[in-house]
Design a protein that fits this description.
Helix content: 25-40%
CATH class of the largest domain: Alpha Beta
Distance between the termini: 14 Å
Shape: elongated
Radius of gyration: 21 Å
Number of domains: 2
Order of helices and strands: EHEHEHHEHEHEHEEEEHEEEEEEHEEEH
CATH topology of the largest domain: FAD/NAD(P)-binding domain
Amino acid sequence: MSQIEYDTAVIGAGLMGAGTALFLARSGMRCVLLDRSGVCSEASGVNAGTLTMQMTRADLIPYAIKGWEMWTNSQEWLGINPGVVAAPGLSLAFTEEEVATLEHRAAARRERGAQIELVTAAKARSIEPGLSTEVMAASYCPMDGFAKANQTGFALYQALKTARVDIRGSYWVERVEPEDRGYAVIGQGEVVRARRLVLAGGVWLEEMLNWLAVRIPIKTLVNQLAVTERIKPVMRTVIGIASGLLSLKQFDNGTVVIGGGWQGKGSRTTGSTQVIPENLIGNVRLAVHAIPNLVHTRLVRAWCGFEAETTDAMPVIGEVPGINNAFLIGSIHSGYTSGPFMAKLLAEYILGHEPELPLFDPSRLIDNESYSKNNVN
């Protein structure tokens, strides 16, 4: 009989995988965290770091609120504040149609607990003096903000080490094999055994599930981002627009990060990405349209990051369908905001506790035409 080395093996050390390992370890489990790069080296380390209610899907607002509360109290659970700034957020409308869109979106999110209200253009400019004079109205939320994504990995790494999680970076997993008492994770010429398995591979979840002969399609988005040179303060809020194609925030060092989901080119198979210049130009033009004082600002860098999306654009958090003691987490819209809370929820479930909010059963997405449930272990 094979010896079990760990209580849980987590594959994927992004925000949600690392967070799940952290909360499990703090509850006494022996955990190993495996990643082909390192902690928060992929999407969790290259995203815009936005903490938002307005850009979060309405059904995920209760989770985003909990996540925002965790981020703004990160010293308590993470031990380090990774540059978290709580700031109000404005989503802008430039046409009557966009005003109607904001009204609808705000109402849907208020029903689920978000403090979002529609304000006049004059009120919006009193909140953010640098706004364009072409703004007709805006939705306002006091519960927005941002964190420094490039500092999150360091903070999580330190917390994981303190919790005695065995972190194995630059670790390429070749396959996973179910055994009588758990799982054998095979890679790097060795076998890591654990009683439980958590798959947290972001856009690579689909390939990971193939190890267990389970088919859940995962779409790959290639989101473009850009950062400016350091400039004097031109904004003090988190800015978006009704269409969702813009996110703007200025950090304490003076740089402005520009995003909004404009797509680049990329392949999750090779990991390669490429900025599409036309889309970058469109994104930057929107930024200047919203905050005219950005017009003479130079861009320093542009890059792309992967984002995972399911066929219904909702998360997958829970048990791998038909597989005992195997779990997955990922594909969370605005996942940076709610990520820590989602990780905490899954850890609670694995530990046998009733989660504070419902999980998102992956079985709703399983492709039964290609794969059958295996009921192994």
